[in-house]
Amino acid sequence: MPQPRQRLIRNDFRRLSLGLLFISPWLVGFFLFLVYPVVSNFHLGMTHYSGFGQPEWIGFRNYQELFHDQLFWTSLYNTLYYVILAVPLGVAVAIALALAMNQKVREVTLYRALLYIPSVAPVFALSMMLIWLLNPRYGLFNYILSIVHLPAINWLGDPRWSKLAIVLVAQFGAGQIALIFLAALKAIPSTLYDAASLDGAGPWRKFWYVTLPLLTPTILYDIIIGIGLGLQVFAPAYIMTGGGPLNSTMFTALYIYKNAFEYSRVGFAAALSGILFIINVALAVVTFWSSKFWVNYHIE
Amino acid sequence: MVSRVFLIAMSLFYISPMYWMLVTSLKSDQELSRFPPTLWPEELAWHNFDQATRTFPFLSYLENTAVFAALTMIGSVLSNFVIAYGFSRIKWPGRDLLFYPVVASIFIFIQFPVNPITMVPMFSFFAGLGLVNSYVPLVLPTFFGNPFFIFLLRQFMLQIPTDLSEAARIDGANEFQIMYRIILPLTRPALVVVALLAGVSAWNDFLGPLIYLQNDKLYTLSLGLQFFKTMHGIQFNLLMAASCLVVLPIVVVFLCFQRFFIEGITLGSSR
Questions:
Q1: Which of B114, B257, B268, B270 is placed for a possible disulfide with B208 were both Cys, Cβ 3.0 to 4.6 Å?
Q2: Does A98 touch chain B (CB under 8 A)?
């Protein structure tokens, strides 16, 4: 007859194996589709490999080459430029959209749908549309600029504007995250606003001292997602500019793609992916660490 | 009044690319090259749609894309339901600890299944198995769970009272029966959300098809649109007509299931 304690352990073991059975697809997927490729990036990154035949071991040569590769630094600069511009702008736009979606207007559901729809539209189609919308001669944007007497801009042909055009594409997808901000806005107790009113706060001060602090957990989420999306930005650049003009939109993801699938430098591309992974993790860790200074988790 | 003006201005800006896509798709070649552009076509050139669908094999790419989206939906619903069940409805030692890597990997799998960080080794892997030029590399991973969907479904399932499972357990039901008979019906709204989001993400995938599909018979619509970029430039009215046809199903699905989309996004956010 088993002792109660033994039975407890056996019961634990039974539930452990049952739990593992249910999550086993994820375990397999996690190792096969995440751990394996991440480790393999560093392994392949130390080989000379064209995609055919056997990878040839060359140690750290790819990393040395990378270090002296002007285009690698350009792509890193472009990617970080994009992240630094797109992430804060994305947060601001998403909050603005959420505030709009939260207005007490009768037909607000219609506006919600209109603001949300572009975010489910495919990025590749949106990018195609923007090529035309931003066309220097016939595009609608420059026509609007000309109405207000501003000079026409060659959005996709001028290195000074090209990254901005790609940042703009991302803003049309802000509807998804705006809905999360909307849910957070609705969760703010109205008594807080009443109290602020009693203290004589106007709409701006209410936003600054009540709304914004209570949105910080969602802002953290948005920043984390935004960094990931920004570091992996690919389709808009591939479709709209192909990395040009003058490599001004050659993002790291695009450079990885070109090396692996156009220049047959698979080992070099793997080394690049490994570096992108490290940057990805480092930025996430720093963001999480910083959150304890500015994220407000308590509604008091 | 001020808020309404603000709302209308923002909505107009957000819908402008789609409006412009529709307007451009209906313009004749002559009207297309006019400046300032006309805000509504003087003459509706419906034949653009006819011509656009003959520029590339629209129907067969539509079929490919639909099959791809359907398989992705099936894989996502099946796998994420079972995995999320294991992370929420069964108590086992180490469960919540093992959930950390799920949440952490959302960050890398922001593009799923193909993303720039993992694509080079994964391509070599699938190439070694002779599976390039098939949908296997695009569909297979969806049968092994997607961290974002696991997170979303787990949040949902944790809100279902444990008493329901306990009562069934006392009645002698095993875990699979409880999952199938009790939890599945209650989780259905969240599963609809997962199916919709998974289907849309397959429909909208560009990078995955771009690297894995090299035979143009297998192309998806996302690759099909590239046919309009030729050496002589782009025929924008035809490209926009084709784009309308690609975007239209998504908009229709969105309008039909609007409630699910809007509730679904916020489902996972209730910490």
A1: B114
A2: no
